[in-house]
Design brief:
Blueprint: H1 4-13, H2 27-36, E1 44-47, H3 54-60, E2 67-70, H4 73-83, E3 91-94, E4 107-113, H5 122-135, E5 136-147, E6 154-155, E7 158-159, H6 165-172, E8 176-187, E9 193-203
Parallel strand pairs: 1-2, 1-4, 2-3, 4-5
Antiparallel strand pairs: 5-9, 6-7, 8-9
Length: about 200
Amino acid sequence: MSDPEHWDAVYGAKAPDAVSWYAPHLATSLDLIDRLHLPPTARIIDVGGGASTLPHDLLARGFERPTVLDIAAAALEAAKQSLGDEAARVDWIVGDVTRVELPEAAFDLWHDRAVFHFLTDPADRQRYVDQVRRAVKPGGFVLVATFGPDGPEKCSGLPVVRYDADTLHSTFGAPFERIDSATETHRTPWGAEQAFLYCLCRRAG
């Protein structure tokens, strides 16, 4: 997971809309975000956002300054190009989420679709959770999507960990209250089906 060259190669070999996790709109994420009724000034970070369409939709919803973090500089460059002039309205961070320096208590919402399940090492998972605890404001929200119990065992040539709502929530521990969850059958650009699990939590205030 923590090899930038691997992910730069993935995006170098495929167009942003040809990777397995691509969706024209992240409908399930957006539905859960909409339910929170966050103000336009809410600070949202999309972890592992890559060349995702989420920044487009967040800006279209009036959010003023989303942040996108990804280990692959090539993915972020593709995202910037797709946004054109609006890329200047997004904060871009190139780095490994388990090691990058993030500001303390800065974000109202932490969003991750399809990064956490790549963390097969318990130490990396703990570093990730520590980052969430540091970077998300008390009372803020954490929305993480992984492959569900019936999802793939590998993605982009790497092993993954599959979760149900209980095991994913328990990984984050007591400071986080689960307030919603959802499942999704994602269809890849070539028509394969992948089972995703979404877990939405609130950090204790």
